[in-house]
Amino acid sequence: MRGRSRLLAILIVLLFALAEQPQACRAAPAPVLSSPSDILDATLAKVVKIFGTGGIHNLEGYGTGLLVSPNGHVVTVWSHLLDSGDVSVVLNDGRRYTAKFLKGDPSRDLAVLKIEGDNLELPCFDLRDIADVSPGTRVLAFSNMFKVAAGDEPVSVVHGVVAARARLSARRGAYGAAYEGPVYIVDAVTNNPGAAGGALTTLDGRLVGMIGRELRNTESNTWVNYAVPLAQLRGPIAEIIAGRFTASPSKSDEANLPRFSAIDLGLVMVPDVVYRTPAYIESVIPGSPAAKAGVMTEDLIVFVNDELVQSNRTLKSILGRLESGDSIRLVVRRKEKLVPLDLRAPERRGK
Amino acid sequence: MLRTIGTLLVVLVAWWPEVTARADEVVPAVRNAERARVATIAKLAPTVVAVFQRSAPAGGSGVLITRDGYALTNFHVAGEDQFFKCGLSDGKLYDAVLVGVDPTGDVALIKLVGRDDFPTATWGDSDAVRPGDWVYVLGNPFLLASDFQPTTTYGIVSGVHRYQYPANTILEYTDCLQVDASVNPGNSGGPLFNGAGELIGINGRISIAQRGRVNAGAGYAISINQIRNFLGDLRSGRIVDHASLGATVSRDSHGAIVVSQILDESDAYRRGLRVDDEIVSFAGRPIHSVNQFKNVLGIFPEAWKVALVYRREGEKHEIRVRLRSLHAKSEMAELSAPEEQPPRERRPDRPAPPQAPNDKKQPRRLPRRSREKSFTHRPEADVSDKLKALYATKPGFANYYFNRVELSRVLRGLDAWGDFHSRPAWELSGGLATGAPFRCILSGAFASLETGGKTYLQQLDQDPQDEPAGSGGLLVALNQLRLLLTQREKAFASLVYFGREPLDGGSEPVDVVVSSLGSIDCRWYFSVATGALAGFDTRLVEDTDDCQIRFREIGTFEGVRFPSEIVVRHGESEYATFHVLHLKERR
Q1: Is residue B405 part of a domain?
Q2: Taking the CA atoms of chain A, what radius of gyration do you get in angstroms?
Q3: Portion 433-452 of B in contact with A at CB < 8 A
Q4: Which of A36, A153, B20, B406 could share a disulfide with A149, CB 3.0–4.6 Å?
Q5: Which of these is catalytic: B61, B76, B182, B511?
């Protein structure tokens, strides 16, 4: 009897071991998008168009958000859109609400809004049921890109494949991206104007990630199409909704720093006290690139790479745009003379 | 226990083929889907046209819709040219000539010559398209295909019923389809197919951002249902116009879409629409936003009749409105191709950057031009005489030649009624629906009607009158009919084929011929199904209600056929129904 039981156990193990392989390879292509319209319609109802401040230069006055509670909690990217405090949230059926900024997590570029009113009974994503996916997974991206959708038009949907899961290394203008955690890189153009805050879902409608703002890769300077995994955001979202959330300020300040500042070159500038504090050097750190190039205490920085430095603030913004290894030509005023000095941007901090 | 083991073994054996299958083998569903795609593309490719302008190293794409060579493309691909070279996937280059253009809708109809068995696309229904549907885009992006084999890109529908603002041009994409399949410079004018390989749109526009003038995941196609509405008009060889309601709408504080302004001279106003009325539905589609209203309006050519439901003080009213033209006649006549190059696609080997078909951030301008530079300019010298014979100039027309072709086709519908040339004057008699008898005389000098003890008279050398009063000018109208039957084209200052529309906004498609003589304009409706004249509208003065005459029955009288039951309407009401019992020649 015991012998038989053992045989049975071996057979069962064998069966499962053999059965697993073809099942696994069948699992990958199984969700062929055959009749996705119903799933799409359900997802489109959970993605909202957000209208707020903006509308000048490259700052769009529109964005995207995800409904995450029946009572109107909307998750989106923390951006200039929210600067005025109140924003307009428009559902796919044209219902228009005012929403208030509840709280955000700058280190994750996350903001949570609350639509005004109670017992709203809105369709929403279930944050308990999110998908953690691997490269090769087919995904859909939903967003208000280019503000194509208006009124009761649902947002746009595009299809793609998760190309990689990687740490985000990107920048926005002169600044590094606030968020530097893991992201899903997508093979479709998902991160268009207005797309930030949109949804990345599996073909069966489970939430995978939130589309981030438009960013460029720090290494290649190309645009990144990515979404922040919901698993990274779910905790803070729940805490914000529960009213328990406190952002860690040190991380956010660190994250929002420009990519290069004077101190990276070995320069300590005079305190930035007025709007146009002249860019005087208070001290030079011995052994630093600046010291090696011959920069001296009390030099006034007049030009950086032929750009006029009117104040400490302009200096900050110019240095913020530098890449590692860039050559820098400083022109300083020393006594009554203009002195050109050449140095090179060091490796980036934290690398 | 042994039985259990036995069962397990059976299960194991049953699974064996799958178990031994190679791990990298593709499941049949995926393989079949791929096979179906390959077969669909092979079927579609021969219908796709690589369009090249003759006057510039530029071009785009197109799609064949009839076996005798009619093909759709974008207005901005046709540019200023009247003649084109068109490559098909058989590797051959065909000559083509411009037929008609819709500058507002960015559509052009061209005709390839040299075959009567061109492969054609199958028409689909763009209103049945839903977000998430698979789509194929075929065309000639970046003018890559030197052997004219179209490039295929594949994607999904991102949105439907999209509205894209004109932004400083008259070109407006209403009710369009948005797709994520790659659409790039050179794809303009090419077909969008659904998963079943049916034509659902013409690609023509993309959204671009900071990433350069190439696809960024949002392409737009003019819906094929819109183009279907315009096709008859395009075949007329005219520069076709879009429609206006004669009223603008806006969202009020309660979110309702209401009339904010209305022209007194519009048909909508005459049918009772006023400022502050709430638009409930338009052409059968519920209206909840200004964009929806513009979407509906954008799919109709001028002069179509469309149902409109409005609400005033809680009460709903349904009216049928004849749409006005969106632009002034002079504007359309002087319309020419764009002055700037952005929408043109250049060959990559020319020193010009790739350019997007069109987009909203840097919209294409459509300036008004002097007539010398418009569609009326002369064909080029290197075009064969055979091709030149398919082109004729006339103000207001992209190619007047095709108007002549369509007009002769439609007027042949009159032949079935017999020869009226030798009968310049008639006397009709019979009874009204009320039972009262009538007698009507139509001659070269006057038109008269005797009924109910009264006689109504219109002298033809005097100003046209609304006679009998309240008919909208019945006597003038009947005289126009006499002129058409007895003299055809010779009777009128102008007689042109206008296009195709559903009669009275219903479901019967009719070919429309427009005549003008002095201040009198008529629209003649010929049944597409039978070719017979189904009725006509006569307008004495612009922007007033016309006299609408419809033929219910056709009878035989002394060797000719003529309407035996004639319904006359004016404004909202029916004026009278005439039962013609006798038609006599009057000497």
Answers
A1: no
A2: 26
A3: none
A4: A153
A5: B76
* Cα angle B465, B468, B472; round to 5: 60
ipTM: 0.82
Q: What is the pLDDT of residues B37-71, one digit of tens each?
A: 999 999 999 999 999 998 877 889 999 999 999 99
Q: What range defines the domain where residue B313 resides?
A: 243-325
The model's pLDDT over A85-105, given as tens digits with 9 standing for 90+, comes to 789 999 999 899 999 999 999
B100, B177: one domain? yes
Residue B334: pLDDT above 60? yes
Asked if residues B131 and B158 have their Cβ atoms less than 8 Å apart, the reply is yes
Same domain, B417 and B492: yes
Catalytic residue, from B89, B126, B188, B515: name it.
B188
- Between positions 23 and 52 of B, the ones with CB within 8 A of A are 23-27, 29-30, 33
The CATH number for B181's domain is: 2.40.10.120
> Is B317 in the active site?
no
Amino acid sitting at position B111:
K
Per the structure, how many domains does chain B have? 3
Tell me, letter by letter, the H, E, C secondary structure of B444-475. CCEEEEEECCEEEEEECCCCCCCCCCCCCCHH
Q: Which residues pair with B178 in a beta bridge?
A: B159, B220
CA–CA min distance B46, chain A (Å):
27
Q: Confirm or reject contact between A9 and chain B (CB < 8 A).
A: no
Among B524, B497, B528, residue whose Cα is nearest residue B240? B497
Instruction: HSE, CB side, 13 Å, CA atoms: give it for residue B580.
Output: 23
Is the distance from CB of B580 to CB of B564 less than 8 angstroms? yes
Q: Across the A/B interface, how many CB contacts are shorter than 8 Å?
A: 133
Model confidence over B380-411: pLDDT tens digits? 557 889 999 999 999 999 999 999 999 999 99
B262: CATH: 2.30.42.10
Neighbours of A134 (CB within 10 A): 10
Instruction: Give the H/E segment covering residue B253.
Output: none
> A183 — contact with chain B (CB < 8 Å)?
no
What the block records as the tokens of B392 is 């004729």
B253 and B129 belong to one structural domain: no
Domains parsed from chain A with CATH numbers = 29-251 (2.40.10.120), 262-344 (2.30.42.10)
Which one of B341, B375, B398 terminates a domain? Answer: B398
> For residue B408, is it within any domain?
no
Asked whether the beta carbons of residue B218 and residue A96 sit closer than 8 angstroms, the reply is no
Q: Are B87 and B50 in contact (CB under 8 A)?
A: yes
Quick one: B170 and B225 in the same domain? yes
Measured CA to CA, the distance from residue A262 to residue A330 in angstroms comes to 12
Are the C-beta atoms of A282 and A328 separated by less than 8 Å?
Answer: no
Q: Is residue B404 part of a domain?
A: no
Contact A208/A139 with Cβ under 8 angstroms? yes
B230 neighbors B301 (Cβ within 8 angstroms): yes
Reply yes or no on whether B146 is catalytic. no
Burial of B457 (0-12, 13-18, 19+ CB in 10 A): middle
Provide the 3-class DSSP secondary structure of residue B242.
strand
Question: Of A72, A52, A56, which Cα lies nearest the Cα of A64?
Answer: A52
Q: A37–B132: do the CB atoms touch at under 8 Å?
A: yes
With CA atoms as reference, the chain A residue closest to B287 would be: A152
Same domain, B481 and B577: yes
Rounded to an integer, what distance in angstroms lies between the CA atom of residue B549 and that of residue B572?
13
Q: pTM to 2 decimals? A: 0.80
- Of the residues B366, B398, B430, which one is the last residue of a structural domain? B398
A chain contacts of residue B290, beta-carbon cutoff 8 Å: 151
